[in-house]
Design a protein that fits this description.
The chain is mainly α. The chain folds into two domains: about 1-215, no CATH class; about 220-468, no CATH class. It is about 85% helix and about 0% strand. It has helices at about 1-15, 20-35, 45-50, 55-85, 90-100, 100-105, 110-120, 120-145, 150-170, 180-215, 220-255, 260-295, 300-310, 315-330, 330-345, 350-355, 360-385, 390-415, 420-440, 440-465. The longest helix is centred in the middle third of the chain and has 38 residues, at about 260-295. The protein starts with a helix and ends with a helix.
């Protein structure tokens, strides 16, 4: 629901606004997203992972977040001209000042969100987040329709942060007090600081592509890249984002039961691998038509970038899952050190992109680095959590075997008509599911079992209603 509403809104905005508008906001959000980590310095993750939180703990972190959010808003507002100078764009200065309000708005919801996640009240979070997504999307589209241009994206972003905070406050029963204890904050620092430093470095690397591309290329080129990257992220969102939000607090509860922990982890790994590899194939085959049909011909330059980037989509959700597995076991320090190793590997695409001065070379090397990242994560989980390397690679190859030949065959056939691409995509999905069924894929079998249970529950409900 959440991702669907965001996708629909993005279609309207892409048709109402110019590609350069998205490029300017992406350049601004690169700095905003990196600084966002400083709001709670990893305390949200620490609150979910810890088993000894008290009301004073929550209140202390809440006060810390408010002070940090207000400070970040203040500093970013006055640092905006320097960010604008970095991009040689006065408009980025104005956008940065407006978007700095996100720090203040989001600082009020971090503890509430952590409490709801820790208690696995995912339904409450989703309903409130969906409501905020729809309302902010409508406001953004209205602003674009009435000619606010790039500032309609600011309206959408700020209204989402504000509405989401208000709805989360209406959900949780916890009310903060004015008591602050440094002892309670210090108690979580052993875990939170490593989580914080790892998140800072990760956020920098996630946004480093936009930061450097904006220095090498025009806002128009940056907008084409960010549009392709956003579409690529749909695989992550639709295959795993909801699962992972539930999985981290769940694995944190099972951290002392290794057998149950492994069963849940590998079951989720199998499901995410199944969904992400299938979605990667479908989006690769239909990507060009989706871009032209939904966003218009002015986004044509996005297509070749997207068809390369989409190949990394099957790995990104799995890397996110493995990160959460490490954190759920309290391995924040170890995760930090391994992450630094992976970031060194992640620098290679930027060197290649700079050397060739070509966004396609950068994109190809970025995809290769994502595969290397997955392999490093697998060996990391073996050394730290004793999770089987063999089981990991079996699940990966069960996705590779049907996907890779299908992509090569698609390129060899040179299909151009939408009807033929749709037919090919249907055949691919059926072949993918058949292969998974024959190999007794754990993820597919679990989904089938859950579907059967759901049908049985609905049948009983209908029978009970008819009898009544």
């Amino acid at each position: 629901m959440n991702q669907g509403s965001t996708f629909v809104v993005s279609i309207f905005l892409a048709r109402l606004l110019n590609p350069e508008d998205f490029g300017l906001v992406a350049m601004t959000m690169a700095f905003i997203s990196i600084a966002t980590v400083f709001i709670d310095m990893g305390f949200s993750v620490a609150l979910i992972q810890s088993d000894s939180n008290t009301d004073k703990t929550y209140s202390s972190i809440f006060i810390f977040n408010i002070v940090a959010g207000a400070t970040l808003t203040f500093l970013t507002f006055f640092a905006a001209p320097y960010i604008g100078d970095f991009y040689n764009s006065p408009q980025v200065t104005d956008l940065t000042r407006w978007l700095s309000l996100m720090f203040l708005f989001n600082s009020f919801n971090r503890v509430q969100n952590a409490i709801l996640n820790k208690d696995l009240q995912i339904k409450s979070i989703v309903i409130r987040s969906f409501s905020a997504s729809v309302i902010s999307g409508v406001l953004g589209v209205m602003a674009a329709f009435y000619g606010l241009g790039v500032y309609s994206l600011v309206v959408q972003t700020l209204s989402y942060a504000f509405i989401n905070t208000i709805t989360l406050w209406s959900t949780t029963q916890w009310i903060p007090s004015l008591s602050f204890s440094y002892v309670e904050v210090k108690k979580l620092m052993g875990f939170s600081l490593y989580a914080f430093f790892e998140r800072v470095i990760t956020n920098i690397f996630i946004r480093l592509d936009v930061l450097l591309l904006a220095k090498l290329f025009s806002p128009l080129t940056v907008s084409f890249y960010t549009r392709a990257s956003t579409l690529k992220e749909f695989v992550t969102k639709y295959s795993s984002s909801s699962i992972i939000k539930v999985l981290f607090p769940l694995l944190s509860k099972l951290k002392n039961d290794q057998k149950a922990y492994e069963n849940v982890y590998f079951r989720m790994f199998s499901i995410i691998a199944l969904l992400s590899y299938a979605l990667t194939g479908v989006l690769y085959f239909l990507g060009s038509d989706i871009i032209l049909l939904l966003f218009g011909k002015k986004w044509t330059a996005t297509i070749p970038i997207f068809q390369i980037l989409i190949l990394s989509s099957c790995n990104i959700p799995l890397n996110s899952l493995m990160w959460n597995a490490m954190m759920s076991k309290g391995k924040a320090r170890e995760n930090f050190y391994f992450s630094n190793l992976k970031k060194i590997i992640g620098l290679i695409p930027f060197v290649i992109g700079y050397y060739f001065n070509d966004i396609k070379w950068f994109t190809v090397s970025w995809v290769v680095a994502s595969f290397v990242d997955t392999v490093v994560n697998i060996f990391m989980l073996k050394s730290q959590l004793n999770l089987s390397i063999r089981r990991h690679f079996i699940e990966l190859f069960m996705g590779f075997i049907p996907l890779v030949p299908s992509i090569f065959l698609f390129e060899w056939l040179g299909l151009n008509q939408l009807s033929m691409k749709l037919g090919y995509s249907v055949i691919f999905v059926l072949a993918f599911l058949m292969f998974s069924l024959l190999t007794k894929n754990q993820g597919l079998l679990y989904i089938m079992s859950m579907t059967k249970d759901l049908k049985e529950a609905l049948r009983r409900k209908v029978m009970k209603k008819n009898i009544g």
